[in-house]
Amino acid sequence: MKTASAVALPSGLQSTFFEGLTAPEIKAVLAAAKLERVSPRQILQREGDSATRLWLLVTGRAAAYRVADEGGKLFLRWGVPGDVFGLATIVRAPARYLVTVEAVQEGSLLAWDLASCQALALQCPSLSKAVNSVVSNYLDGLIDALAARSFLTAEKRLARMLVVSARQIGRTGREGIELDLTNEQLAVTANVSLFTATRKLSKWQDLGILKKHRGKIVLRSLSLFESIGKPI
Amino acid sequence: MKTASAVALPSGLQSTFFEGLTAPEIKAVLAAAKLERVSPRQILQREGDSATRLWLLVTGRAAAYRVADEGGKLFLRWGVPGDVFGLATIVRAPARYLVTVEAVQEGSLLAWDLASCQALALQCPSLSKAVNSVVSNYLDGLIDALAARSFLTAEKRLARMLVVSARQIGRTGREGIELDLTNEQLAVTANVSLFTATRKLSKWQDLGILKKHRGKIVLRSLSLFESIGKPI
DNA sequence: CGACTGATTGACTGCCCTCAAATAGGGTGG
DNA sequence: CCACCCTATTTGAGGGCAGTCAATCAGTCG
Q1: Do residues A42 and A76 touch, judged by C-beta distance below 8 A?
Q2: Closest residue to C16 by CA to C1' distance?
C-alpha cells in the first residue's frame, strides 16, 4: 500500500465533490489524502464493516452492490473516476458501510481516514454540503432504479441501463459510443438474466442500432436508446 | 392552517429524530415549529417542488411515493408518528423534494420553515447528525426494498411487507397484531397485483395464520411471516 | 494449437399479471 | 328497520414475459 499523500488533484480528474470548495480548501483536503493502487476483484469496502474511511476513485472502475442473504449480488451502481464512497464514515460518526464496493479494473483511489475526515469536516463546512449532495444523488438514483424495476419491461430496463452506463463509462469512438461491458455485466446492472440480455442485444444488432464485440458494446446513437427506455 | 407554535413535544410521541439532542435543544427546536392538522388525501409535499420546509408527523399516517412517468405510483414507505420528511430542505440548501408524501389518515404534523431550519442547524450541530442518520436509514431501507424486488417472489415480498408494516403501523390486539390495511394498500406496498395479494392472504387465512376483515388484517404471530419472507 | 471465457440459440416452464364477473361488508337515507 | 349504494374482496380462466437449462459456437491469450 502506497502512503504518499496527494498534493495535487491528478490531472484531468474533476469531481463534483470538490465543486463547492475554494482552491486552498481543496489543497488542504488533498494534503490529508493517501493515494492507493487497486487491482481488479479487490474489495474496497465491505458492507457491515465499520466505516473508517472515505475515498474517491481516481482511475479505474468499481462496482457497488449489496450481497443478498442467499449470496446473490444486487448491483447498485458503477463507481467511476471522481465518485466518492464510504460516505457513512463522515455522515454519522460510528457507522457501518451500507454497501460493498469492488474494483473491476486496475486503478487508483484517494483515501481519508476517520481522523482526517472529522478534522476536515470541522475545517471546511462546505465539505459536509458536498457529502450531503452526493448522498442525495445516490438516493435519487436508487429511487429511479426501483421505479425502473417496478414499471419497466426487461427490454426497457436494458435500454435504460445502456444509457446510464454510457454516461458513466462510455467513450466516444469512431463508430459511436463505446462501452466496455460484457453481456453478463450489463445483465446484472439491468437486473435481467444473461440470456435475455444476449437476445435483446442481438436483436438490436440486427436492427443496426448497435454493434457488439467481445466485452464491448458500441451504440450508434444514445437518443435511440433513450426513447426505447422510456415508458409507454 | 394553524400557526400556533408547539412548546412541548406532544405526549406519548417519541422520535429518534430527537435522540441526540439535549432537553434545552429540544425545547428550542419545538419552539420554532408550527403545528398543523392534515386530512386524508392531502398532499404534504410534492416531488419536484422546491424544498421549503422540514416536518415531522405527530399523529396519523402518510404514504411516501414517487409518481412514475406514466402516472403509476411507486410506493416507498409509510410515514408514522415520529417520522421526519422534507429532509432535502436542510440537507442541501436550494433543493427540491425527492418524493411525494400524502396523508392517508386524519392527523397532525410539526413543520419548520426554511429560515428556522437553517437557524436551528447552526444553533445545534447534533441536529445535522440526526438528519444524516434519518437519511442513512432511508437509504438502507431503499436498498432492502430493491433487493426484495429483485430476489424475492411475490409471496415472500408480501410476507416481508406484512412484517415491515406490522412494525410500523401494527397494534397489538386480542387476537394478534392488527394492521389497518386494505388488500389494495398491501398490494401496492409489496409491489404485487391486487389479485395475487388477495390470493395469498386467503391462502394464509385458510392456513389459520392470519385473519382478515374489511380493511384490516390480524396476524397471529410475526415470526411466522418473518420466516416466510426469508429467502431460500 | 489447446484452453478458457464469453456469446448464442432453442425449447421449455412457470410465476404472476390481466380481465371479467360475482359476492359481501358497512354505512346512509328514507 | 330496510333498501340501496359504494367500495372492498373473491375466484376463475387465460396468456405473456422472462427466467432456467442444455448444448454449441466464437474470440483471445498463452
Answers
A1: no
A2: B196
